[in-house]
Write a structure and sequence with these properties.
Blueprint lengths: L3 H5 L17 H13 L2 H5 L12 E4 L2 E4 L16 H10 L14 H4 L4 H12 L12 E2 L9 H8 L13 H13 L3 H4 L17 E3 L2 E3 L15 H10 L1 E2 L3 E2 L2 H9 L6 H12 L36 H8 L1 H4 L22 H4 L4 H9 L27 H15 L9 H11 L4 H36 L2
Antiparallel strand pairs: 1-2, 2-3, 4-5, 6-7
Helix pairs in contact: 2-6, 4-6, 8-12, 10-12, 13-17, 16-18, 17-18
């Protein structure tokens, strides 16, 4: 994996052609594999339990559900018939093989910065894989977003194509980290807030965003809202393992990024990403007064099982019954022993210190899967019936979330109720009524505006033609 430094750094990209006389070389394919891992292609283009890169995964967006395409070298259902130029145009310009505009769920806004050599190395790797004949389901887009030519307007507002250029006055490590984080890893896509048109608000770069209901937290070097109190070693530890004891555990989309991509990168590249993050402008989020990891205290009552006045378990009672065996009765976690991995503590966990408990609620619903390391712990999903027992309903999840927030995190944060849990379930599936309503309304306004403008242009054209008639 150390070869990654020689293939990802923009100033050190090899100038060898993508294909030699006998096809791509093993070195080029290996380089492409590493680049594809850093870009986390497998996360979007693979359905769990199905062949890698065969497509079909549903990606929820405010505009509808997009199904990632097959990118194996099958000539009919995949990309096996694509030329180098067509592959470059897709990643650099967001245009498909047939000339169709691609939805920006495919992060060509960031991939446009990749060098030609790196893009073609990724193509060489993908073409070395076994072809899989599998057609992805059709997209399910809200009207009128299924009409792809409208994406030209979105691109005009939000997309500037162009290759990566090193930032003057910055060292090689910073610029390598910038290439890894912005072009390949596309960190901005999740950790930067969106504008009204769903483009990236670069005035708040890396100050935090929302991805399928999950909060992608502020990762600027602000000491309160961001990671300004984290050391370089802290950042590397978190990126490589998804855990930083006493501060954070990666779940949801970030957990997938660690599991599929970051944990495979060499330490030098993770350190370069950390150097890039440390060099960003510190941005404070409104209302933040203390670091998210600065809240909470252990629960001193290690014995009682709490029941409410109606005889049903309270939030603490549910925690004792469902959570304490791993996270500890006092919330400090449990140490690893031979044959059993340890489990993280909840005191100081950044998800519980946030003003909103969205990530904590979604972690209870969906769990936190293991990253793939040997003997690694995981959190089961409590939002659906499984081998651990019956599912917790929305009201019970709210009780648990409120207890762990009040005891181990930010007690002053917004309370959780069954309605907010239900809302998060919908947002995580891409069908939040609020989001759908807002964007449907905007789509209607935009459509009427386009029709009005078109009619006005036609009338003027007819008037000018009449004036020129003899």
């Amino acid at each position: 994996m150390r070869a990654f430094l020689r293939v990802a750094a923009p100033l050190l990209v090899l100038s060898a052609p993508a294909f030699g006389q006998g096809g791509p070389s093993p070195a080029l394919i290996g380089r492409g594999r590493i680049l594809a891992t850093a870009a986390d292609c497998v996360a979007c283009h693979t359905v769990e339990g199905q062949p890698a890169f065969a497509g079909g995964k549903a990606i929820a967006t405010p505009f509808g559900t997009i199904h990632a395409p097959n990118i194996t070298p099958d000539r009919e259902t995949g990309i096996g018939a694509w030329s180098d130029a067509e592959f470059l145009r897709a990643l650099h310009d967001g245009v498909g093989r047939a000339g169709e505009q691609l939805y920006p769920a495919f992060p060509y806004v960031q991939y446009t910065r990749l060098s030609d050599a790196d893009v073609l190395a990724i193509k060489a790797y993908l073409f070395s894989l076994p072809p899989v004949r599998r057609t992805a389901p059709a997209n399910d887009m809200l009207f009128p977003f299924g009409y792809r030519p409208l994406l030209r307007v979105w691109k005009w507002i939000n997309f500037t194509p162009g290759r990566f250029a090193p930032e003057p006055g910055r060292g090689g490590e910073y610029n390598r980290g910038r290439y890894l984080a912005e072009a390949l890893g596309h960190c901005n896509e999740c950790h930067t807030p969106r504008t009204l048109t769903q483009g990236l608000d670069m005035s708040r770069n890396l100050a935090g965003g929302i991805v399928e209901g999950w909060q992608a937290f502020n990762i600027t070097p602000d000491p309160v809202s961001g990671i300004g109190r984290w050391s370089r070693e802290d950042i590397v530890t978190y990126l490589s393992s998804g855990r930083l004891p006493g501060r954070a555990v990666a779940g949801g989309p970030m957990g997938e990024v660690v599991g599929h991509s970051l944990r495979f990168l060499p330490r030098e590249d993770l350190s370069a990403i950390a150097a890039y993050l440390e060099g960003q402008k510190p941005l404070r989020n409104p209302g933040d007064t203390a670091p998210r990891s600065g809240y909470g205290r252990p629960d001193p009552d290690r014995l009682s099982f709490s029941l409410g006045g109606n005889g049903l378990p309270t939030g603490r009672g549910l925690y004792v019954a469902a959570c304490a065996s791993c996270h500890g009765l006092d919330g400090r976690g449990t140490a690893s022993v031979p044959g059993r991995p340890g489990f993280p503590g909840l005191v100081g966990n950044s998800a519980l210190g946030a003003a909103r408990a969205d990530n904590a609620v979604l972690a209870i619903i969906h769990g936190v899967p293991a990253r793939g390391g040997r003997g690694e712990s995981f959190m089961p999903a409590f939002g659906a019936a499984s081998r651990i027992g019956n599912a917790l309903d929305d009201a019970q999840i709210a009780l648990v979330a409120n207890y762990v927030r009040a005891q181990f995190g930010n007690a002053a944060g917004s309370p959780v109720d069954a309605t907010s849990v239900r809302r998060l379930r919908l947002e995580n599936g891409g069908r939040s009524p609020l989001v759908v309503g807002v964007w449907a309304g905007m789509a209607l306004i935009a459509g009427l505006a386009i029709l009005f403008a078109a009619r006005l242009v036609r009338r003027r054209a007819r008037g000018n033609g009449a004036e020129r008639m003899p």
